[in-house]
Design a protein that fits this description.
329 residues, two-stranded parallel ribbon, binds nicotinamide-adenine-dinucleotide, alpha/beta
Length: 329
């Protein structure tokens, strides 16, 4: 019997890659999103353009007992979108409404297995002040003090999924993603994340040019390649693990180092101009002890490998765009 999966947010970066993986695994897949994927055709068998804040739409797309439901839809963006404060009300209202609707429609259809994409942004700001020693172990989430309203909504929704597990016997699984990057991710327009923004700036630069870096560049992060994110996602979904797990890389780098690595991949000499900008916490890294213990698996691909693939893809997009603008297309 063919298994059925629903991917909410299937027009987004992670969702569109997840659809491809579920098709390879033999599922019949329905995707739902406000938009189609931007950079490639969806591979979903059925793709509904619709707004998951609408309860009726939710009931209509969750019209059966799906074997697996992945809830990735959210109002989100890079630091320039989340940390300025200008979008707080939208971010909280829109994402919470989606989660309330999707979970309850699943309960009514007895679709029990649901995956929820939370974020490293739920971790307390007070544990991420030292760029060399951030603490993001799963049990450090409380006392809660996320540094953004995006993080607070994620924390509320995590608790919502865990409550449905306790009260309604649903098999909800929660991942805390840490900075996912890769080909077919947003690379321009203001919602892109640091790796994509740096790849774009370097692809557009000539050797010996200078690129702008927000802040001193000594803030640290880790970045997980999309392939490993998808692998961790399906492994967690098909496990018995009831608790939230980090899905992230443990290879922590400073933003300055990230620029140097991308410049090396591009074969260009690049200088950095430090400018004011939204920074987020000083340091953040995935702690992978619990995922290794629960799933006997953890991400291991070196950052360099994922960045090479991503840089080549973004370079192609930049070249295509400049050809189009030169030909007036
Ligand atoms: P994305 O923005 O590319 O995808 C989210 C999708 O949700 C978008 O296509 C958007 O159109 C859709 N969406 C938003 N509002 C909707 C609505 N009302 N109805 C239907 N669809 C709607 O983001 P992504 O990077 O693919 O992230 C997927 C999930 O993972 C999100 O929940 C995000 O918060 C979480 N996450 C991502 C990262 C990361 O580094 N990419 C890190 C932590 C958590």
């Amino acid at each position: 019997m063919t298994k059925h999966a629903l991917v909410c947010g299937a027009g987004g970066f992670i969702g569109s890659h997840l659809v491809k993986r579920l098709k390879r695994d033999g599922f019949w897949v329905r995707g739902v999103d406000l938009k189609f994927p931007e950079f490639s055709e969806t591979e979903a068998d059925d793709f509904v353009i619709g707004d998951l804040r609408d309860r009726n739409l939710c009931s209509a797309v969750i019209d059966r007992r799906f074997d697996e439901v992945y809830q990735l839809a959210a109002d989100m963006g890079g630091a320039g979108y989340i940390f300025t404060g200008e979008h707080d009300a939208d971010v909280m209202h829109n994402s919470a409404a989606i989660n309330l609707n999707v979970l309850d429609s699943c309960r009514r259809r007895a679709s029990k297995k649901i995956f929820y994409s939370s974020s490293a942004c739920i971790y307390p700001a007070y544990n991420q002040t030292d760029p060399a020693n951030p603490n993001c172990s799963e049990d450090s989430a409380y006392p809660a003090a996320p540094d953004s309203e995006y993080g607070w909504e994620k924390l509320f929704s995590e608790r919502l999924y865990l409550a449905y597990r306790r009260n309604h016997g649903m098999h909800t699984h929660v991942a805390r993603y840490h900075n996912i990057f890769g080909p077919e991710g947003t690379w321009t327009g203001g919602r892109e994340k640091a790796p994509a923004a740096i790849c774009r700036k370097i692809a557009m630069a000539r050797s010996d040019d200078e690129i702008e870096v927000w802040g001193g560049g000594d803030q640290t992060r880790s970045f997980l390649y999309i392939g490993e994110c998808i692998e961790g996602t399906v492994r967690l979904m098909r496990s018995n693990c009831p608790c939230p797990l980090n899905i992230g890389s443990q290879e922590m780098v400073s933003i300055n180092h990230l620029v140097d690595v991308v410049a090396d991949i591009a074969g260009k000499r690049i200088a950095k101009k430090h400018v004011p900008g939204p920074l987020g916490v000083r340091g953040r890294n995935s702690d992978n002890r619990l995922i290794k213990e629960k799933l006997n698996w953890k991400p291991k691909q070196p950052l360099y490998v994922g960045l090479e693939n991503t840089y080549r893809w973004i370079e192609q997009q930049v070249n295509r765009n400049s050809l189009q603008s030169r030909s007036g297309g």
